[in-house]
Description:
Elements: E1 3-6, E2 10-11, E3 19-20, H1 22-37, E4 42-43, H2 53-66, E5 70-74, H3 79-89, E6 94-98, H4 107-110, E7 115-117, H5 120-129
Parallel strand pairs: 1-4, 1-5, 5-6, 6-7
Antiparallel strand pairs: 2-3
Amino acid sequence: MSIYLASPMASTKKLNEYSFCDEKFSSNEKIAEKLSKAGYDIFLPQKNQLVTAKETYENEIRQIRDCEFLIILLSDTRGIYLEAGYAKAIGKKIYAIRLPETRKMSEWANYWYDYIAENVEELIEYLKKNGN
């Protein structure tokens, strides 16, 4: 069973503009590689973009439904929070990694996550220690 890695893909530097960001893609792949080397089967959405937005959406919903748990890379990008909200609504555990661009979160927001790590190594250690 795979782990869904909700990861930022867009730049938010310009208001009202959506553009993919190579820097975020590269960072996401490095994190996914570290998780894979630790023994996790990772589904990385940026590598699974289908022909249409509708097909991509349906595939990602299916992947979230079927995954063991979700890891979210906290960011300044909002799309990943949709994935986390859906996963939480269907009872999935959600673990998070705080990226450098992560905005300060309220105490209330922190309760949505089963664990928040400061980096991928800390999360791997936590997951292994807790039987995941």
